[in-house]
Every structure is written in structure tokens, then in C-alpha cells.
Write a structure and sequence with these properties.
The chain is mostly beta strands. The chain has three helices and 49 strands. A hairpin with a 5-residue loop joins strand 32 and strand 33. The longest helix has 11 residues. The two termini are 32 Å apart.
Length: 837
């Protein structure tokens, strides 16, 4: 829910102009405004200006404000407030005299309009302040040469001389140079998502220069507390608070993104320059979202700019570009078009010679986005259309067995991609808001390894509609519908051991003695409607109670037959107490459900009788803001997992036939941990954070078994990030990570299968060993040149700067007699140029 900023109220309080002065001045203050609108403290932010500072402080303490509010709840906040001191008036100007000096003030490089900037004409003792469009006007400027002066906080002082002719109007365009190149700024407009118990918000400008992220806002998710590292080999999976990959989802403006990254973790499939920021919710999220038992990431797109804007970016891996603008002649209509393509394929074709392993399709990826917004001036309605496309493709030919292993040869071909068409409608009228978004999605997944393959072509429909009402200062209500209808044409032919599930192990891939399981082209359906309702109750100042309930239904089957359906009710409640402007306390409890994913409810790879997985989530924590820009938060969490879908050795009789059960709900799990986040929020020069997570995630696959470690259980996870802006356009940053190594199952020996001439491993206890810990230091340096109408950013982003290749897993020889570590990426420098206008 958005926080409404405080606004002045009551009789106007003006700062007295100091006697004996003859110049103009601007004093910017930082004010502490309590929940009653009283100013409790005031500090000067601008350089010292004796007498003006004292007058501004005295006036500020007499001011009254309408309190800041979250919804209708009054809050204590810190704000910036400026007093402009105009010099004593010049001799009266005849009223019939027209404006004879005017102009605009913009930021140099970004060309952004600057409002609230004072423009002074010293000789004539005249001044004006720019409006929302950066315009100013001066009347009665004497003819001749005049000096315009601007001295604004955060910008270099500007002084320029103009000529004023009698009876003519002089119009000027002024550009202010930022003290630090490309100052951080994000535009926030409209209704924010409903407040969550555990939410970390990161704006896109904060993360565009984080080392190791290559300017990609979505890649910074892995640096937040509670997120496990899955490595490039893990395919960029999202593992939050000890839950399985796939139990946590990423949403863009309320609808899911099926594939977040290209080739696992190279870059995200959505252009980061179209985004406002990300909200990370690791657990105990509200009833708004369902069909998942882990956490979620909400990605918010930003408002499109009215003036033309764009960029072109070129680095060692890819090229990208974007352009956006309003459409002349149609008020409120604007568009943005963005695209990206890798050129790794061109480099590899030239660098890799023909041999035992060669590319049939060199790896390449691309994505593109088209967005159109229509917000008619004065209308209560707004429309947004968004089209997304993404595609990754790779082909390999292994001409002869590798490492003398007869199991490894043949072709490897993959292609993954999706297209989405989204239409969003927003209606606002007073305290009532209705948001609806409909989406069509086409998803393509193709994998072929030797004689085994999987081909999925899915055409899906989604609808989410939410109605919110601010009933009173102490009560707000919300309800909605959330529907997903997935129809996938699936064909497959592979060994069951290739589909390794969590807790299973397969160091050598599929067993050569196992027969193929085949599924001819089959239409698989998954229909999951959800209804939810939620109230936000504020019985006391600073105290908010949010009860909610959600009903989810899951219907799946093959074509029109073998349909099964289940339902789950999930009550949830969250409590937040703002004890003071510094301290806040929070707690929450809730039930969550998740229907069978992929083909878990479809034969011959699953079981139509499986039930939804369930989770009980408990969270308690505290937050502290000791001074502006510094945040400290700590949370303890517990998660109990039940009805986990696991592999079953049992059989059952279906229509007179004895069939393997394959999967059932015999698994249980538990997760416990503590998360700590110390964050220096965005300022003009420095930001960063220190995130630490201690957690234990364990599973029992079948009754009677002992607890074992989860595949991505990482006991300690530490991330430290800092970025600092220097004068003359320089910026430096670093990211350090230390993470406990992932569990793995050791191989104790092997047995020889003579009829097939292969060796089969003998395993130890599941996940009873670990690979060595992961540590990595990434460094980034930027140099920005600012021109009148555009900026150029040259950057060097060095991944794994001290070249310590991480251990990802243990590999064994074909007879399991020898082993060695599979190591990850070495030092990778990325050099690039980005021009923006």
C-alpha cells in the first residue's frame, strides 16, 4: 500500500527575510513530522547560510502538516522541506508589463525537467521557481545584459549571461550539471502492492551498478536474505527459505514470468530499464497470492516517460537497446520498445574448431518487450498493453564417448522460450480501486539428449482482478479472483531416472539398463482458480492487523479424461506494530497450498491422485531505523511442510491393471532460520547492504526414514554489497559472498553389470556430505561522461575477481573408481558501453 507524503496544512507560515540582506537564498531542511503533523526536529541540509538558516528553522518549527499516511493510518516520517528567500522587491513593475524572460531548467545528460529550482536575476533583484515542467517566468527585466544564477543542492552552480531587448521576450534553456553523475532517482506512481509482513524493496536505480549483476535488477534477488545460491549449473533456480525450486515464483505486475533468466543466470528475460523495482517477499505473504508454498518476488514496471528517452548498451556478451516516448496528438498515450540479443554464437563459431564436441546450434538468446500505456487526462480509467518474448537455443554434437564413458555421446539440443500478451485495466474513484489484468502465454520447452527427449508447447490463459476499498481510517478491505488455465501439448521419451527429484541423486545421468518411458503427443490440462479476501484493521495508532483467507482449487488431467480435482482453504494473519518512528515489530502465521506441478498428476510420469502440498509458515521479527537512510531488520522463521510429492515404490490396481504408484504425498519437511539485513538505503553517493541467513532445511521422504538435509540446504549465507559514487562521473562497487557448500550424496563404490558392460554406483546416506564452501568477490567500476542531451557509461564488471573457481559438485569416472570436483566459472571480466538520452 502506498505511503502518502505529509502536506502543509493550516495557516501558511513564511520564513522572515533577514534584515540587512539583499540576496536570494534556498534552505533545504530535514524535518521529523510525527503522526499528529507536528514538527519535532529540524536540521539544515544545504551548506551554511547564516541568518537564512536560523529564519528557516524558526519557521519550520511553527509549521503544521497533514500527517503522512499508509492507507488511512497516520505515520511519523522524515521529509525534506525547502524555504526560498526572495530578495527585497525591486521598484514596482507596471501591471501591464508582460513576461520578458522565461525558460526551462533540465538536468544535463538525462534532460529531466527539474521543479522547485530557484532562478535568480541578481542585477534586478528578481527570482522565480520552476514548476512541474521545469518552466520559469520573470517580469520586468530591464533591457540590456543580465546574469541568471542557479544555486541548487545536488547541482553545480550555474551562471550565464543573457541579453534582453526592449519589447521582446527572451526564452532560454538551462542545463544543470549534477554534482555526481547520473544521480539515483526513481519515479513512483499509483497504487503500490498490498503491504506484506516480510518485504524488502529494491529500486532499479539502486541495483543497476551492483557488481556481478551486469546492470540487471532481477539478478540481485540472489543477494537478498533467505535466497540460496543455485549456481549457473542450477539454471538460475529460485530457492527461498529452504523450499524446493518451483515452490517460489516471480511476478511481473501481478502475473507470473515462466522463465526468469537466459541460460540459467546470464541475464534476465525482462529489460531492467522498464522496471521500477522489485519487492522480495520470502514468506508469510498475504492472501493475494496462492498456489505456492515458498516465497515470491514482485517485479513492478515503472511509469513511461512523456519526453523521448532511450539507450543502447553493448558489452562482451550481448547488445540491447530501448526507446520510449509519448505519441504526439494523443494525450496520455505513450509507448516503449526494448530488445536484446546475445552474440556468443558468432564468437564461438569463430573460436571453436570442428572436433569431438561441436556446436550444431551455437548458444544464443534474445528477448523483446513492447509496452503501450493510455491514461486519458482527467479519466478514472487507465489501460496498459505489454507484449513479451524470449527465446534460448543450444545444440551440441558429441561425436565419440567422453572420458571413455560409453554412456556419454550423441546430440544435445535445447530450446526454451515464451511469449506473453498482457492487458491491464485500472479504475480509481475515491476510496475504490479495481485492478484487472488478463494474459495469454505461449511457453515452449524442448530438450533432447541422445535418444531421450521432452517437448512441451503450452498455451495458457491467466486472469487476476482485485477490488480494494478504504472503508474508513481504521479499516480497508480487499478481495479478488486469481485464475490460471494451462493447456500443454506434451510428448516425451526418456528413462525415469533422468527426471531426478529433490533428494535423489544421479551422478552419471540415466542408467543404461533402464527402459524408456514414452508419452505420445498428449494434451495435459491444469486449471487452478482462486478466490481471496482480506481486511486491514487499525484498532490503535501504529497497530495494523491483517487477517485473510484464500480458497484454491486444482483441476488437472489428460484431455477430457482422468480429470481429478482438489481444493484447499488457507487462512492467514499478520500483525505489525509501529512502536515509534525508530522501532517496528511484526509477526505472522498462515497456511499455504500448492497443486501438483509439471506432469506430477499425469500418467505415465505421475499420479492423478496426488494431493496439493501444504505448508505452515510462522514469522516474527523487528525493524529499526536509527536515522534516515539506515535500516536494520531481523526475522526468525519456521516452516512445516506436509504432503510433499515424492517418488513411491508402491503399486496399485487401476481398472483391473496393476500399475506403479510412481508418486504420492508421503514426504514431510521442516525449515527453521534467522535472517538479518543491515541496509544503507539510497543516497546521492553511497548505498549497500549486509545480509546474513542462518537456516536448516530438512526432509523425510518416506515414513520411518531419518531426517536428511534438503538439496539446497545452506547453513550460512553472507552477502556484503557497497557502491560509492565519486566526483567526475566515477563509481566503484564490490560484492562479497560466503555460502556453505551444498549437500551431496557420496559414492562408496560400484558394482559391475556384465550383461550391459556398465558400472552402477553404490551410494552412501542421502546428502550426508557437502562440497567445500563458496566464496567470491565481484568488483565493478563505472565512468560516466555527461553531455548536454545524453550520457555515456563505460563499465568494467569483474565476476570472481580473485579467480577462485567454486566447487559445484563431485564427478566420478565411468567405473566410479576416481573422482574430481566439478568447478564453476573462473574470473569473468565484462567490459561495456551504455549510451542514454
Amino acid at each position: 500500500m502506498p505511503i502518502a507524503a505529509p502536506s502543509p496544512t493550516g495557516p501558511a507560515v513564511e520564513a522572515e527575510y533577514p534584515a540587512g540582506e539583499s540576496r536570494g537564498a534556498r534552505v533545504v531542511l530535514e524535518l521529523d513530522v510525527d503522526a499528529q503533523g507536528e514538527v519535532t526536529a529540524a536540521r539544515v541540509l544545504t551548506p551554511p547560510q547564516p541568518r537564512f538558516d536560523e529564519s528557516a528553522l524558526a519557521a519550520a518549527r511553527r509549521r503544521r502538516f497533514e500527517p503522512a499516511r499508509r492507507g488511512s493510518e497516520p505515520l511519523a516520517v522524515r521529509i525534506q522541506f525547502a524555504f526560498n528567500f526572495a530578495p527585497p522587491p525591486a521598484p514596482p513593475v507596471p501591471s501591464e508589463q508582460l513576461v520578458n524572460v522565461s525558460g526551462t531548467v533540465r538536468e544535463r545528460g538525462s534532460r529531466r525537467w527539474l521543479s522547485g529550482i530557484e532562478v535568480s536575476l541578481r542585477e534586478a533583484n528578481l527570482s522565480a521557481v520552476t514548476d512541474a515542467q521545469g518552466r520559469f517566468e520573470l517580469r520586468g527585466v530591464p533591457p540590456g545584459s543580465a546574469e541568471l544564477v542557479i544555486a541548487a543542492p545536488g547541482y553545480q552552480r550555474l551562471s550565464t549571461r543573457i541579453g534582453v531587448e526592449p519589447g521582446k521576450r527572451t526564452d532560454v534553456s538551462l542545463l544543470l550539471e549534477p554534482l555526481f553523475a547520473n544521480p539515483f532517482e526513481a519515479t513512483v506512481e499509483g497504487e503500490r502492492g498490498r503491504e506484506e509482513l516480510s518485504r524488502t524493496t529494491i529500486t532499479t536505480p539502486e541495483v543497476q551498478r551492483i557488481p556481478g549483476a551486469q546492470g540487471d535488477a532481477l539478478k540481485v534477488v540472489e543477494d537478498l536474505p533467505g535466497v540460496a545460491r543455485t549456481s549457473p549449473i542450477g539454471g538460475g533456480l529460485l530457492v527461498i527459505r529452504g523450499s524446493n525450486p518451483g515452490d517460489s515464483l516471480v511476478y511481473l505486475d501481478g502475473q507470473p514470468i515462466p522463465l526468469l533468466y537466459h541460460f540459467g543466470a546470464i541475464s534476465s528475460t525482462v529489460n531492467p530499464d522498464l522496471l521500477e523495482g522489485i519487492d522480495y517477499v520470502p514468506g508469510n505473504f498475504s492472501a493475494t497470492y496462492g498456489d505456492l508454498v515458498g516465497g515470491l518476488v514482485e517485479v513492478r514496471s515503472r511509469k513511461l516517460r512523456e519526453e523521448p528517452h532511450g539507450y543502447a548498451n553493448l558489452n562482451l556478451l550481448e547488445a540491447s537497446a530501448m526507446v520510449e516516448s509519448s505519441i504526439p496528438g494523443v494525450p496520455g498515450l505513450s509507448f516503449a520498445l526494448a530488445g536484446r540479443r546475445s552474440y556468443i554464437d558468432y564468437i564461438l563459431r569463430a573460436a571453436v574448431s570442428e572436433g569431438d564436441v561441436r556446436f550444431t546450434v551455437a548458444p544464443r538468446y534474445y528477448d523483446a518487450q513492447l509496452r503501450i500505456d493510455w491514461r486519458p487526462p482527467g479519466s478514472r480509467h487507465a489501460l496498459q498493453f505489454l507484449a513479451l518474448t524470449s527465446d534460448d537455443k543450444l545444440g551440441l554434437l558429441v561425436a565419440r564417448p567422453l572420458d571413455q564413458d560409453p554412456n556419454v555421446s550423441g546430440n544435445i539440443d535445447t530450446e526454451t522460450g515464451f511469449q506473453q500478451l498482457r492487458l491491464k485495466h485500472t479504475f480509481r474513484s475515491g476510496a475504490l480501486t479495481v485492478d484487472s489484468i488478463a494474459m495469454f502465454e505461449r511457453l515452449l520447452l524442448r530438450f533432447a539428449v541422445a535418444q531421450q527427449d521432452l517437448d512441451v508447447l503450452s498455451r495458457d490463459l491467466f486472469l487476476r482482478s482485485t477490488i480494494s476499498l478504504e472503508a474508513s481510517d481504521g479499516l480497508s478491505l480487499a478481495a479478488g479472483v486469481d485464475v490460471a488455465n494451462r493447456r500443454a501439448l506434451v510428448s516425451a521419451s526418456f528413462q525415469q531416472s533422468l527426471a531426478v527429484r529433490e533428494g535423489e541423486f544421479n551422478n552419471q545421468g540415466p542408467r543404461i539398463d533402464e527402459p524408456l518411458t514414452t508419452l505420445p503427443p498428449t494434451l495435459v490440462n491444469r486449471f487452478s482458480p482462486g478466490l481471496w479476501a482480506e481486511a486491514r484493521i487499525r484498532p490503535l495508532p501504529g497497530l495494523t492487523i491483517t487477517p485473510g483467507v484464500r480458497l484454491d482449487s486444482y483441476v488437472y488431467g489428460v484431455a477430457a479424461r482422468d480429470r481429478t480435482s482438489t481444493a484447499a482453504v488457507s487462512p492467514r494473519v499478520a500483525v505489525r506494530w509501529e512502536a515509534s518512528p525508530v522501532w517496528a515489530f511484526k509477526a505472522g502465521a498462515g497456511l499455504y497450498s500448492q497443486g501438483a506441478r509439471n506432469a506430477d498428476a499425469v500418467r505415465p510420469f505421475g499420479n492423478p491422485d496426488v494431493l496439493p502440498e501444504r505448508a505452515l509458515q510462522l514469522t516474527a521479527g523487528a525493524e529499526m531505523r536509527p536515522w534516515p537512510g539506515l535500516f536494520f531488520g531481523a526475522e526468525a522463521f519456521y516452516k512445516r511442510l506436509s504432503d510433499i510429492i515424492v517418488r513411491s515404490p508402491d503399486t496399485q490396481v487401476v481398472d483391473g491393471q496393476t500399475l506403479p504408484v510412481i508418486l504420492d504425498n508421503a514426504g514431510i519437511g521442516r525449515v527453521v532460520g534467522i535472517e538479518v539485513l543491515l541496509r544503507k538505503e539510497l543516497t546521492s553517493r553511497l548505498f549497500g547492504w549486509l545480509a546474513y541467513t542462518y537456516s536448516r532445511s530438512q526432509r523425510i521422504d518416506r515414513p520411518g526414514q531419518a531426517w536428511r538435509a534438503f538439496d539446497f540446504d545452506q547453513t550460512h549465507n553472507l552477502t556484503a554489497i557497497a557502491s560509492y559514487k565519486l566526483p567526475r562521473g566515477w563509481q566503484i562497487g564490490a560484492r562479497f559472498r560466503f555460502i556453505t557448500g551444498n549437500p551431496e550424496t557420496p559414492v562408496l563404490g560400484s558394482r559391475y553389470l556384465a550383461p550391459l558392460d556398465v558400472y552402477l554406483p553404490i551410494y552412501g546416506a542421502t546428502n550426508s556430505a557437502r562440497v567445500p564452501p563458496f566464496s567470491q568477490l565481484d568488483v565493478r567500476v563505472d565512468k560516466v561522461w555527461t553531455f548536454d542531451a545524453w550520457t555515456l557509461d563505460a563499465y568494467l564488471d569483474v565476476l570472481n575477481s580473485y579467480n577462485r573457481r567454486p566447487v559445484e559438485a563431485t564427478l566420478y569416472s565411468y567405473d566410479f573408481g576416481q573422482s574430481q570436483y566439478l568447478r564453476g566459472l573462473p574470473i569473468i571480466p565484462t567490459l561495456g558501453l551504455k549510451g542514454s538520452f
